Target: glutathione transferase
Amino acid sequence: MKLTYFNLYGRAEPIRLMLNASKTEFEDERIKHTDWPDIKDDKERFPYGQMPVLQHNGKVYSQSMAIYKYVANISGYLPDDADSQYMIDEAAESIKDLLTETFKIAQKTSSEEKKESITTLKPKIETTFEVWEKNLKSNTSKDHYLGDKDSLADFILTCFYADHVKSGPLSELFQEVVGSCATLKSYFESRADMHKDYFDSRPKAPY
Ligand SMILES: N[C@@H](CCC(=O)N[C@@H](CS)C(=O)NCC(=O)O)C(=O)O
Model:
């Protein structure tokens, strides 16, 4: 199995974390930004001209969420009931919304504009974290998002915590908001602790 992406956590990190947790051997290929323009049009390797892509058993898998589900499925992290699958998609979509805004803000050069956008984003983060907090409170295990088994939801949320709350371009803001969500904060910390060896030893990347 081979995963190809930039040397970033980004969209690839939940895949890396799942493969690591399930002790699946894989090649973690990291493409230099300077090499990317020369290879991106190779449709055999990159069917959509984008990454991440996963090669497995002679097939190329594209589109991050589809890869997450595929890897979760073959690793035993994809619950088989409709409600849990819905909860995974809901969490993933809500993260996507927050990260779209985060990267828009991170690219702004005027500090005035940045401040304004942060003020707009904060209530959206609060709303999202409140939903996750409520879901965790109603779950039996406080170390799992769904039931008492590791699922794709845990890997996506743990990477969001590691790469955008603990570090990342708007980490101060995310940390401020998570400070008011005790159950979510403790879930995040416990999940990060479970994968401490992985997070301590992974190659360093900006986000
Ligand atoms: N919908 C795609 C989006 C993939 C995407 O935007 N990948 C970026 C890196 S995060 C990329 O390949 N950028 C280089 C390019 O588009 O040339 C997915 O979820 O995998």
